Fold this sequence. Notes:
Elements: H1 2-13, H2 24-28, E1 57-63, E2 74-82, E3 87-96, E4 100-114, E5 117-130, E6 134-148, E7 152-163, E8 171-183, E9 186-195, E10 201-211, E11 214-222, E12 226-235, E13 238-247, E14 251-261
Antiparallel strand pairs: 1-2, 1-14, 2-3, 3-4, 4-5, 5-6, 6-7, 7-8, 8-9, 9-10, 10-11, 11-12, 12-13, 13-14
Amino acid sequence: MSLIILVFIAIFTMPHESRAQWDARSIALGNALLQLPGKVLVGPQNPAGLAWLRSAEGVLSIMPAPYGVPILRRFGASVGIPLSVLTSSISITGMGGELARRFEVRGSVGFLTTENMGFGASLIAEQWTFARYGSRRTLCVDVGAMMRTEELSIGARSLLRAVEPRGSGLLESMTLGAAVHPSGRITLLAEAEQADLFPLGLRYGVIYCPVEPLALYTGWSEVPDLLSGGVSVTFEGWEVIYGGQWHAELGWFHAVGIARRIKE
Length: 264
C-alpha cells in the first residue's frame, strides 16, 4: 500500500502528464527549457523552437528509477527533421510498469514567418492504463510562438485539451518564458506556467559552457519545489547528457540521454 501511495504522490506532484518532462537536458534545467530554439527534446517543448532546427537530430532519454522506485521508470525517443518550409518531429514516451502505465505519441511542426519569428503546433495522443481500473485516453493540441535574436528569445505556449471526457475546460495550461544570452558561454532561462487546477509555477535555469565540448546545467522550480543540475559532453555530432533533480518530498531522481545531430 505504501508503494501505491508513493506512486500516486509522484504522479500528482509532477506537472500534468501532457507537460511532464522526459528529457535529461530538461531535468538538468529544472524543466525551464521552453525558450531554447533549434533543439529536439524527448517530450514537450515549445513547438515553435523547432523552426530553427537546421539539421536532423535524434534524442534518446531514460530515467531508470525516479525517486528510487523502478515502477516509475520512464523512457522516450524523439527525431526532428528539417524540411523545405518547416521542421517536423515525432516523440514517443512511456512510463510505469504493472501498476500503472503511460504511453504518448507527439507529432510537432515548426516554421518561420520571418528570420526572427517562428510558430509551431503539436498533436499529442496519450493513454494511461491502470491495473484493474481500465484505461484513460487524452488528445491534446500544443501551440506556440517564439521571437529570437542573438541576445534574447521570448515565447509563449498553450496546451489545449482537444478531447477530455471528464475535463473542466479547453485550456490545459499557458506558459510564458524568456532566454537571455549575456555572453557566448552563458544562457539564463525563466518561465511561468499557469495550469488548470494548479497554482502558478515558476522555473529557472542556467547553462554555462566553460569549454566547447562541455556544458554545465543548473535549475530550480516552484510548484513543485525542485532543484536540478547536470552536464553534457559533445563529440563529433554525438552528445551525452546527464540530469539530476531533487524533489522536496520524494528525494532524487536521475536521467541520462544521448543525442545525435547530423550536420547539414
